[in-house]
Write a structure and sequence with these properties.
Length: about 200
Amino acid sequence: MFAKLFSDASTKAQVNFLLGQAYYDSVRFAEAEQAYKDALAADPAFPGSHRELAKVYISLRRQTEAQKELDLALHQDPQDASAVYFLGALLVQTERYPEALPYLERAYKLTPDSWASAFYLGKAKLKMKDATGAIALLQQAADLNPDEPSIYYLLATALKTAGRAEEAKQALHRVTELHSNTLDVEKRALRDAHVVGAR
């Protein structure tokens, strides 16, 4: 039965693709890399394989390989919104802001409800001296994901750059508040663990 299952190239690719996803979700990046490579060896055009392999490389901080895979993913499917976003975000992370901008603008249009697209586009605009554009995008990111401290930190920077000092202070206060809440949750979890252990 397994011989028959693996005799078909597309099935081999699908099985290895699913294995890659399972390994990636389990933070087993070396196994995920090999599984996606096996999927591509079985079927070089298997949808999503280049994009998912790129995500593994991003996790491993292998940016050059990640960009190569994302370029291949977009060559294969120019409408892959996830690949567009990851390439834009990768270019921001490597401080290539002018290159990142068109990808992030496209990702933002394709996924207007994504806080991450708004966040990275806002960051790129801020780094390119467009504080006003950055503020609108970062405020939107905060509205979509109000519990993410990094959004408010960058928003505070953008507001300060725009001369809006009082609003910048409020954004920084939100950062402190979120970090404090996280510490409280961790303390409660530790306390509860000690209580359970003492029983």
